[in-house]
Amino acid sequence: MLRPESLIIPRPNGLYCPPGDFYIDPVRPVARAVITHGHADHARAGHENVAATPQTLAIMAVRYGEGFAGQVRTLPYGETIERDGVEVTLVPAGHVLGSAQVVVRWRGMTIVVSGDYKRRRDPTCPPFEPVPCDVFVTEATFGLPVFRHPDDAGEIRKLLRSVAQFPERTHLVGAYALGKAQRIICLLREAGWDRTLYVHGAFERLNALYGEFGIDLGPLAPATSDAKKAEFAGEIVLAPPGALADRWSRRFADPVSAFASGWMSVRARARQRAVELPLVISDHADWDELTSTLAELAPGEVWITHGREEALARWCELNGLAARALALVGYEDEED
Q: Are residues 14 and 125 in the same domain?
């Protein structure tokens, strides 16, 4: 009987497929890599050959330069490539633009590597697509029952209520440059905010890339130092989280510090960052999304790559699913 470890095994460089001789999201340069999405802890430069969705390849080119890999292979959703009898297909993960699960098939066995994912709607990327499998390799960034993310629209309404309540102040929203910033912008548009949004220069290239892939972000303008403080009163400015406490933020009118992250449900983290308006908006599956996904797929085995592995493994045990924690290193859970 074919064992899953014959197809995928954890190694120091990441998840490795021996019969196909490739890695998935390797943490160091390798000969062949399949990349799930463009966040830096999963997509690194220096591989000899890279296969990924066209969006992820474009994101890597923006972040690392056109020569980020020796050769690249564009793999749109639903298309299959084969290497030494191993078939690889990418399907949507619902995490950020271009994010994908890696479906690996060989000799009748199917292993799905989720990468990072979420199950709730995101206007900037297609939703997670469940694929029946023998082994589901899942993340567990928010793999504790305490993490149950609220409705995204409700968090955006909280932001807009604060803007209405403090029209003399600038609302400075911290959001990560890839995925979260663009999602916040789209959610604000859906909530009726059609005015110009001001953005930090670090977002410029990725915002433009989203536009190239058909994601309409509406009117944007740089949050430049030339404008007077009063001109930003009542406006919303998006910036990387690190800019919230930086000298850069002093150019705004008595700014309300906000931060969009799943970690903002932890009050201590909000206090640590001096966040006045925490917005619990996550690009990762929360506890209910993780467990409902496992219940829906009902795979023969669950492998947990990184995050809060123990609690999710225990849930699997209680619900009749065989599970193991891989404890892979090199994948961060802060960028949410």
A: yes
Provide the token pair at 281: 């908006």
Report which secondary-structure segment, H or E, holds 165. Answer: helix 152-165
Identify whether 165 is part of a domain. Answer: yes
> Cα-flanking dihedrals φ and ψ of residue 129, to 5°?
-115, 110
CA dist., res. 173 & res. 69, Å (int): 34
Return the bridge partners of 104, or none.
88, 111
pLDDT digits (tens, 9 = 90+) for 92-115: 999 999 999 999 999 999 999 999
CATH of the domain at 226: 3.40.50
Helix (H) or strand (E) holding 198: strand 197-199
Residue 111 forms beta bridges with which residues? 104, 135
Handedness of CA 305, 311, 317, 318 (dihedral sign): negative
Mean pLDDT of the chain: 95
What is the mean predicted confidence (pLDDT) over 159-163?
Answer: 98
- Can you tell me which residue has the tokens 């009050």? 267
The domain total for the chain is 2
Q: Which of 279, 299, 314 is the last residue of a domain?
A: 279
Integer CA distances (angstroms), 314 to 142, 143, 302, in order: 14, 11, 11
What does the alpha-carbon distance between residue 232 and residue 38 come to, in Å, rounded to a whole number?
Answer: 32
Range of the domain at 226: 152-279
DSSP annotation of 128: P
Cβ-contact 198, 235 below 8 angstroms: yes
Q: Give this prediction's pTM.
A: 0.95
Number of helical (H) and strand (E) elements in the chain, helices listed first: 7, 19
